[in-house]
Amino acid sequence: MRKASIPNLCIQTEWSRWQEYELLDSGKRKKLERFGSYIISRSEPKAWWATRLGDKEWKRVVADYDEMQGWTLYKAAPSEWRVRFDKLVFLLKFTENSKHVGVFPEQSPHWEWIRQKTKLVSRRPLTLLNLFGYTGTASLVAAGAGFSVTHVDASRSALSWAKKNQELSRLGNAPIRWILDDALAFVKREARRGHTYDAILLDPPSFGRGPQKEIWKSEKSVMDLLSTCREVLSDNPLFIVVTMYALDASPFSIRNILSDMMEGKEGNIEVGELVLCQSHADVVLPRSLFGRWESKEIRGKK
């Protein structure tokens, strides 16, 4: 039996402490949220329990998303608005084909983790690959921390949105490449070109299509992607961050695939769930699984 090359494992739960976001209530397969100064409600299949707040609080929303009807926008709903993460500015808006508004608040612990770990790196040029990068929040955090970033997403509208966030955050001169492409196809080309990266972020959807109608299914495609990502790692990689929203997976699944990917590389794996803690109630809303591999260079430094 092959021994795992990375024995350390820490099951860890993280939650958002981002002040621009608040989970006000959840239950009955819905969630009530504040983004900046606006309150919205959205469908949430993981919120099986009862709500804690009354109807009066739920009626304060400026917009509501229902899986069957889509968005219902009320009089006070803005066409778009902005939130901040320290010096960064992210544009939020309602779109016809999605319940998402441009940012995943449960991922803010990843942003802070990237910043803190980058501070521990010996001074040298750093490169980061962000796959399925959406509207660029993590890419902008990484660029602000000192990385040259390659951001890949299959959605033209998401890339335009990300570039707008770059402009709003006054990072127009930051070294970011915005790439419209299928993630796996892009990484395979990068491997053939001999291009490498010191860090990789992956936030794959459970199901999706690339710009050429390529089909992505996490359970079938993620191992091929991670294997190819191994080929584009630099000689001294710093970290890998994987976030997955698949309902039927486990943190141990991510631990195992990261262990396979990083076999022979000295480092540490921690896995767990990203969650949102509800305001004024002992309720935790699970959002996604995550796994992080980090090198010895940044492990345990203060």
Could you name the CATH class of one domain?
Answer: Alpha Beta
Low-confidence stretches: none
Q: Please report which band the strand proportion falls in: under 5%, 5-15%, 15-25%, 25-35%, 35-45% or over 45%.
A: 25-35%
Identify the overall geometry: globular
State the gist of this model:
The chain has helices spanning 55-58, 108-118, 137-145, 156-168, 183-193, 218-231, 251-261; strands spanning 9-15, 21-27, 30-35, 38-43, 63-66, 70-73, 80-85, 88-93, 126-131, 147-153, 176-180, 199-202, 207-209, 215-217, 239-244, 267-277, 284-295.
Please supply descriptive tags for the structure shown above.
302 residues; 34% strand; eight-stranded mixed beta sheet; alpha/beta; Rossmann fold; single chain; five-stranded mixed beta sheet
